[in-house]
Each structure stands twice: as C-alpha cells, then as structure tokens.
Write a structure and sequence with these properties.
The complex is a heterodimer of chains A (about 160) and B (about 700). Chain A has about 160 residues and is of the alpha+beta class. Chain A contains five helices and five strands. In chain A, strands 2-1-5-3-4 form a five-stranded mixed beta sheet, with helices on one face. In chain A, helix 2 packs across helix 5. Chain A starts with a strand and ends with a helix. The model of chain A has no long low-confidence stretch (mean pLDDT about 95). The radius of gyration of chain B is 27 Å and the shape is globular. The N terminus of chain B is likely disordered. Classes of the chains: A alpha+beta (about 160), B alpha+beta (about 700). At the A-B interface, helix 1, helix 2, helix 3, helix 4 and helix 5 of A face helix 7, helix 9 and helix 18 of B.
C-alpha cells in the first residue's frame, strides 16, 4: 500500500509516496540515488547495507521504510562534513582497511554507531561490535586498527 | 597462459576496427604524447608467443598537454590493489608524482587488450610492459627536452615531471610544456631500459591505496550503482536445481500489474521494474513448474561418486619408479584427503547493466574479464566487435568467481527484448546458486619414508580437480601424479557449476600434500619443520621456511607436541610460501581458535609492500573460512546453502595475529601476491590441530564435528 513517508537523510528532509513495506535500502539506492549503501544479502546477514538511524546502526535491507517515518538517517554520503573526512574515514584510508571496498560503507557506519555508544572501546568490544559485518577480502585486522585509531583521534578532539 | 593464447588467437579478425590512424586518434583525445603497442609485441613481451603484427589504437599511457598522465590498462580493480601498484610503476618510470597519474581501467574502448584479471598475472606480466612504456615515454620526453633546452640528452634528468640539466638545474622544462601542441605517437620499444632497484623512488615503497577515499566516502562506483535514463531493473527466476527444466510458467499475476514487465527468452525468465525490490516481489508471484532430475549424490556421497566412477586418470608428472620406491621404504603411508565445494561469496553479487543505442551495445559488468565478455557477446549475439563496449567499474571482489559472466549475458538478452537499458543484480541466493564453486575433490596419497627420514616414494592421485599446486617441491626420487577429472563414459564429475577459486586446485592439493607430509613426519618421529627442511630440494622454499621459523621463534618438537603449532608450505604461480600457526582447540566442543599465523613468501621485486602485506593478511583470513567452516551443502543439482545464514564466512572474532615476512629480493622479477599465501592454509590448520590434539582431520572444512570425530 502506497503511503506518504517523510524522514531526514543526511540532514535533508525527504518525502515520498511509496509502499511502506519496501525496505529502506532500496528507497535509498533506487528512489533517492544514494548508492553508497550497498546490497550484499538482503536478509540482514552481511551488514553491507548498514546505515545509522538516530544513533543506532540498522540494516537497511531489513528495515521497512514505514518504520523510518520521522527518523534521522545517515548514510555514508553524509559522514564527511564540509568536505572533511570523518576520523573513521581517515583511519580506514590510512590503515588500508579495505580492499574491494564493497563492505566498507557498512563497516564505517557500524563502527560510527559503536563509537557513539562507547567512545573508548577495548579491542574485544570492537571485535564483538563488528562481528556480524562481513568482509570477504578479509581486511579485518586493519578495520580493527582503523577503529582504534579513529577512537583515539575523536577522543583528542573532544 | 593457455587462456591468453586462446583469446589472443580468437581476436585475430578485428584488425580494421579503428578507422583512424594513430595521429588522428591522439588528436581526437586532445593531443599529447602516447605510447602505443601492437598486439604482436605485447604478446611477445608477455610471453604469449608471437602474435600477428597489426596496429591497435589502445595506448598504455598518454601524457596530456596539462602534464597529467593517463595510464590505460585492461586490468580490473577487484580489491587486489593494482590500481595503486600499477600507478606506482608508471609514476616511477616516468619520474612524475603518483598524484599526477590517472588510472583508466578495464574499458574495452579505451584500454589495451587484456585476457583477464586472474592468476596473479597483473604484477609479473602486465607490470613490466607498463614500466617499459613509462621508460619509453620518459626517453621521448628527454629527447624533446634536449632539442628545446639545447642540452645533450645524457646531461638531462627528470624530477617530478620536470626535465632539467644536471649541470645547471635552472635549465629546465616540464613534461606539460613539452607535450603542448604535440601529437606524438610512439611504438613501445622493447629494448628500452627500465630502472634498476637502486634508482626506484616509488616502486618497492609502501603506498596507501589510491582508491581509498572514493571507497570510504561511498563515491566509488560499482556496476549496481549505475543509473541510466529509462533503465529498468531485472530479477531473474532461479531454477530450483541445476539441470532442472522449466515445465510450465504462469505469468498472469504479474502481466496485469502496471509498470511491470515479464520477459521470457527460452529458459531465461525475469521480471523488470524501475525498482529492483519491486521486481523481486513480483517475481514471487510467478508460478513455475520444473522437472528436476533425480539426485544421484550429495555433499556427503560426492567423494565416493568421484572415486568409484572415475575414468582412468592421466599421469601428469612422473619420476623414477614409484612402485620400486615403495619397496625401498621402511614405512609406507596411505591416506585419503577430501575437500568439499567452496563458494566465492564476494560481498558484491554479480551485476551488469546492458544498454543498446542503435547498433551499439555498452555493458557495465562486475567481471574479471571485460575483453572476454566482449568476445562472448560478439559470439552469442553475432555483433561486430566494434559495436560492443564492455566496462568493468570497481568490482566488489572476484576471487576467480567473476570470470564466466553469466549475469552479463542475461542482462544483454533482457535488454535486447525489453528495448531499454536493463540492470541485473543477482540476489545473494542467485549468487550461491549460479556460482562456479571450487570443486569437491579427493586426493589419495601413498608414500614411503626411508629409515633416515627421507621421502622415497610418492604416488599422488587427484579426483575431481586439476593439478595446480600438485607439483612436488620436496625431493622425492620415485614419484607419480595422476589426475582424473572425468567419470567413466566421459561424463562430467560435477553437477554444480565449478571454476577457478583463488589459486585453483592449489588449496585442496596443498591441504592433502602438507597434511601428508606431517603424517610422515609423525611416523618418522621427526619435528615437522625439520622433516620438511630435510626433504626440500627447492632453495627458495627452504629460505622462506627458515624465515617463517625465525619470525615465529619456532622451537623443534615431535608432533603431536600438545602446543598446537602447525607448519605448512605451498607454491603458487612460482611463489614459495611458508606458514606457521598456533591454534587452540577446545576438546569438548571441537572448536578451533587460531591465535597466530606467520607467513613468509618470496615475491621477487615487490611493487607495493603495503599492498602485498594486505594481500597476505587477506589470504590468511579468507583461508580460515575454507579450512574451518565453508562447505556448500547440496542434493543433486539443488544447492542447499543459499545465504550467509548457513554458509559461514570468517568473522572478526576469528582473526589471529598475522605477521608477514616478504623476502628481500628486489633484484628478481616481480611475482603475483594475490594467491600464494592462501594455498597452504588448510594443511597449516590441519597440522596445528593435530599438534594440539593428536587427531588428524582429513576432510575440509575441519568443522567441530569432524574434529571431535577425529579425536574419538
């Protein structure tokens, strides 16, 4: 059933009329052209589609868009501010914490939400927090290092 | 190499595809200086054997009038990092900052022909050609500068794209100034001198990935991100099993829906809609009935099927007399090693976009073989090659799985019928179903050891896969390798699709060989590392094994020592690699935690040590998957694992401490590092589990269940 759905993406209000059972992933990618959010599995098992809603990381591929009404959503396109990369983005680049890059937006946004909730995570907490995001190229150890670096960087900036 | 030859030969009849001559071509792209090649020369250079001499208007590089350097390569960036290492190679030879190099990759209309991005060939085979092209361009520019500056060539040097007189550094001229107003097309001179290691400033130095910013900001474009006017998205109806035939199809539920289109082209059925999720939802409304052939075997019985019905094998390697060898032995050991089907499971599923414009077709595809796909399209759709352009944007992981291009052919078929641009992104379930898996395989080994702990005989029999990685680098006087890849009557061994998987065959062969080496070391009562050194003939292999042992701080002990330390060696694409690991096995649950892995390998001249290290870490972590969990369950042609819910990839909590040693050998030719470190992961983990528990697991993946069984 088509309905009017309004929410905020990367600080901008969006409003569309669509079937509320459609997932946020395809509304972002197909209707709004925000292709940085990736499709990897469509059933919440890989994390490539992770976006931040409020302060929580959510898997957009299993999030019906009707649940997003009135919410603030941030995608990878909204993370850099005023042309400056976020410390997580800087750290992923610095540590070469990626290869093909397809899981990277989801990794970064999952880490972003992790650091919002726990700004000084231990290595174990990072591992647990990232456990269900898959990276087939296997850049895991560098992703962990990048998150540690970003956390330290962000702590310094506070 | 065979594929290269084949594709090169196939390409012989597109001689006249460029109506412009080189000068005109160069003018059409804005002038400058370009280094071209002919296929004949490129072929010779790449060791493919002499090809036909003919002009081709794809250049390796062009220096524009703005001084910017465009580097053209048919190679694809799959994550392996050649976008960075090739830019390093070219920038160094040209003496320009790497930032001034723009990589133009994997576009059949712009780039020199390339057989495909596979087999760790980019660095050893294309790299040297590109370096030669860079050196040639530098020589041309120095020649122009000598005239312009009125200084003899041998007094000129280059730094950051500026040619200067060594004796009077203010006498200088930039590449940009030299290229201005010029249209110079040069043939690649194969005699040109590239830099030696002491002259290198960018090559052999760690460099961060140049695609990182695009990838961390979401700007990097993959095939699924392409948006064209009027484009529709397709979802294909996946049969329930391989070999199934469509008996009946009722599309009426979707036919009546506005804005949806059902396309049927023989066995290909798809729903098209502007939004892919809408197409997928509508797909579930189609009513299809299939005839499914009876399942003759499954993931448990496949191994007996492979061996019991095997046709006579082919002897691929032989030395001495293996039966006589067995008689010389004090102990003869006979074992059988099994490996199941393994998926590629790249996070980006296969994707393609097909757009017809008049007689021309452009296809964007996640592919490791843009030129191969172009040829497939030419053959399948009877199109002239000059009308078919294939572009591979960033590819989200390949691992050998993006070679057969099934999704792209489907997209072209659909676009042809729908008469509009079609984007097809396989679902995860499609990906698991249509994947060309690493084949299930059986290796039977019978070997003998002398009283001095020397291997004297080695009878090695392969069923279900090929022999890459089966060549013995151990010194054995009597040996024989036999390969069987067909059933009696010539029937294919596999019902599921099979194909190249990161170092094809080698992972399963190395699992068998390195497990068996430890079985013999155990029988001989000799430390497994010492046993290897005692039996190794290959000096490079000995060197990497010693380097790994040093880094690890290895102390000898007979296995099983209870320490959980494993050793394994491997050889792939001429690269020797040695691995040492420490694992912990929970004897109650059978679960394995790998604590530490040390890897030493010899890659010759390493272009980007940072990129090479990243590849090693990726190989080791990815290898844990096939060693411990990854296994495709199936019944006949029906694939039972269609999601990450049941097919388990390595996760963050699995990752050990990884230490990489790259042997210093910069005076040696470069070798490819995308595959070697993964090949010995199975044997490594099996040997470490044995060292921890005394239990020998002879089947991959080494699941907790199998480990408990082996311990019982």
């Amino acid at each position: 059933m088509d309905e009017n759905i309004s929410f905020t993406v990367n600080g901008k209000s969006v409003s569309l009329t669509t079937d509320g059972e459609r997932t946020l992933l395809w509304v972002l990618r197909s209707d709004l052209g925000l292709t940085g959010t990736k499709y990897g599995c469509g059933e919440g098992t890989c994390g490539a589609c992770t976006v931040v809603m409020g302060k929580r990381a959510v898997r957009s591929c299993i999030t019906p868009v009707q649940k997003v009404k009135g919410q603030e959503v941030m995608t990878i396109e909204g993370l850099a501010k005023n042309g400056r990369l976020h410390p997580l983005q800087e750290a992923f680049a610095k540590h070469n914490a990626l290869q093909c890059g397809f899981c990277t937006p989801g990794m970064i946004l999952n880490a972003y939400s992790l650091l919002l909730r726990n700004p000084e995570p231990t290595r174990e907490q990072i591992v647990n927090g990232m456990e269900y995001n898959l990276c087939r190229c296997a850049a895991h150890i560098r992703i962990i290092r990048a998150i540690e670096t970003a956390a330290a960087e962000m702590k310094g900036a506070r | 190499m065979n594929e290269d030859k084949l594709q090169l030969a196939e390409r012989g009849h597109d001689e006249s595809r460029h109506p412009l001559n080189r000068r005109e071509f160069l003018q059409s792209v804005g002038g400058g200086i370009a280094i071209f090649f002919t296929v004949g020369e490129a072929a010779t250079q790449a060791g493919r054997g002499a090809g036909k001499e003919r002009p081709d208007f794809n250049a390796y590089l062009r220096i524009g009038q703005d001084g910017k350097v465009k580097c053209f390569t048919g190679k694809v960036e799959l994550g392996q990092g050649v976008i960075t290492s090739l830019a390093q190679s070219l920038a160094d030879e040209l003496d320009v900052p790497i930032e001034s190099v723009e990589m133009v990759m994997s576009d059949t209309a712009q780039c020199p022909y390339d057989a495909g991005t596979w087999g760790s060939t980019t660095t050893p085979r294309f790299g040297p050609i590109l370096r030669a092209a860079g050196a040639e361009a530098r020589a041309v520019l120095i020649g122009l500068a000598a005239v312009r500056l009125k200084v003899p060539k041998d007094r000129l040097d280059v730094k950051d794209g500026v040619v200067f007189d060594r004796t009077a550094p203010n006498t200088k001229v930039s590449y940009a100034d030299l290229a201005e107003g010029k249209s110079i097309a040069r043939q690649l001179d194969l005699q040109v001198q590239v830099k030696n290691p002491s002259e290198m400033k960018i090559i052999n130095k760690p460099h961060n990935r140049i695609d990182a910013v695009a990838k961390v900001t979401g700007k990097a474009q993959y095939t699924g991100d392409i948006r064209l006017d009027g484009m529709v998205c397709a979802k294909v109806l996946r049969p329930p099993a391989h070999g199934a035939t469509l008996k009946s199809l009722d599309t009426s539920a979707v036919d009546s829906m506005e804005d949806f289109q059902v396309v049927r082209d023989d066995d290909l059925v798809a729903v098209l809609h502007k939004h892919p999720d809408m197409a997928e939802k509508a797909l579930s409304k189609l009513k299809a009935e299939y005839d499914i052939p009876e399942a003759r075997f499954d993931d448990k019985t496949v191994f007996d099927h492979l061996v019991d019905h095997a046709a006579e094998g082919k002897v691929t390697k032989k030395g001495g007399d293996v039966d006589a060898g067995h008689k010389l032995a004090q102990v003869v050991v006979e074992e059988k090693y099994l490996d199941g089907y393994v998926a590629h499971a790249a996070i980006e599923t296969h994707s393609a976009v097909a757009q017809f414009e008049g007689d021309n077709l452009t296809v964007w595809a996640s592919t490791q073989t843009p030129f191969g796909l172009q040829r497939q399209i030419v053959n399948d759709f009877k199109m002239p090659i000059e009308n078919v352009r294939v572009i591979a944007p960033f590819v989200g992981g390949g691992f050998g799985g993006k070679i057969s291009n099934g999704q792209a052919i489907q997209a072209v078929r659909l676009a042809k019928i729908a008469k509009k641009p079609v984007q097809l992104v396989w679902s995860r379930a499609d990906e698991f179903f249509y994947d060309t898996f690493r084949p299930a395989a059986v290796v039977k080994i019978k070997s003998g050891i002398s009283s001095e702990g020397k291997i004297v005989s080695w009878d090695y029999n392969i069923y279900g896969m090929g022999s890459r990685g089966a060549d013995l680098f151990y010194d054995v006087p009597h040996h024989r390798t036999t390969v069987c890849q067909n059933l009696q009557g010539g029937e294919k061994m596999h019902v599921l699709g099979t194909g190249a998987w990161r170092a094809p065959d080698n992972n399963s062969n190395s699992f068998a060989r390195e497990s068996h080496i430890d079985v013999m070391a155990t029988k001989a009562g000799i430390d497994p590392l010492e046993f290897r050194l005692k039996n190794l003939a290959d000096e490079q292999m000995k060197a990497v094994l010693k380097a790994a042992a040093d880094k690890f701080g290895y102390t000898p002990a007979k296995t099983p020592s209870g320490r959980g330390i494993g050793v394994a060696c491997g050889m792939d694409v001429g690269v020797p690699v040695a691995l040492i690991a420490e694992v912990q096995v929970d004897k109650q649950t059978g679960s394995v935690q790998v604590k530490r892995v040390v890897c030493a390998q010899d890659l010759g001249l390493v272009i980007n040590p940072e990129g090479a290290t990243l590849q090693v870490e990726g190989c080791i972590t990815m290898g844990l998957g096939y060693a411990l969990t990854e296994d495709i369950h199936f019944k006949g042609g029906e694939v039972l694992d269609l999601s990450f819910g049941t097919y388990e990839l390595p996760r963050f909590s699995w990752v050990p401490k990884i230490e990489t040693v790259l042997i210093e050998a910069s005076d040696q030719p470069s070798k490819g590092g995308g595959e070697p470190a993964i090949v010995a992961m199975g044997g490594l983990i099996a040997n470490a589990i044995h060292d921890a528990t005394g239990a020998r697991v002879k089947q991959m993946p080494m699941t907790p269940e199998r480990i408990k069984q082996a311990m019982a």
